[in-house]
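Encode chain A's predicted structure.
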Amino acid sequence: MIRVDLHTHTNHSHARDSVRQMFDAGQARGLVVQGFSEHSPRPAGYDYPSEYRDHLAATFNDYLAEVSALKEEQAPRGVTVLLGLEVDWLENEVPYLRAMTSEHHYDYLIGGIHFLDHWGFDSAASDWAPLSFEERCALYEKYYRTMKAMAETRLFNIVAHPDLIKIFSVEDFRRWLEMPASMDLVGDALTAVRDAGMAMEISSAGLRKPCQEIYPGPKIRRLARELGLPVTFASDSHATEQVAWNFDELARCAAAEGWKESLVFCRGKVTAMPFDAD
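Encoded structure for chain A:
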């Protein structure tokens, strides 16, 4: 059983439910550690068709206050609430990211790649439909080079959904993984993640998406285990019913590769939390 979920969103960005509602859902599912990891503020020019930037900016301090208050409230009960942030990695905005993440005392930072240059590639399947296989392969390659660059900044504790790039083209992504040098490129990125002291997220969110596969898929999980990369567990929940969703499946997949524990990050302190697949 997994009792830790480090990737939770709230209605301060584009999720549906409040901090308290998401926390109560986690308690109902037996979590003893729940990390809130709201999306980070983004500069103009990195835009989704349906943009939540203004709403996030207007309520971001409320997010910080609500999670911090919940953290203090629950500590005497032995329930750990963590204040985190999922940072949109923007390769040309590193000074902005460093300044933004240093403004508050976060327990941990998740690095999430949602943009390649200025394109939010996980927004719409229609963006991918006209692309040839060769064009898609070029994007897969760029994604893992971007991940390597992100890890090398040593800004983050966790890499989010480490094959999100497959979301709208999973069959082509699997074909690409079988091509010469593809896994070398993935391995270079994961090695950089490991060497930066980060963990790799195993997330059930992909099972809810068009790819219908855990992030990351089995081939990448296997490589990560061979590289000795530690893991965290995540639902990437945007509604109460998604908190700790399908964690039994995550536990089985992680245990099958040989992981026995996940990491929890809290302001420089790292704790290993055992889990089992029963």
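The mean pLDDT is 97.
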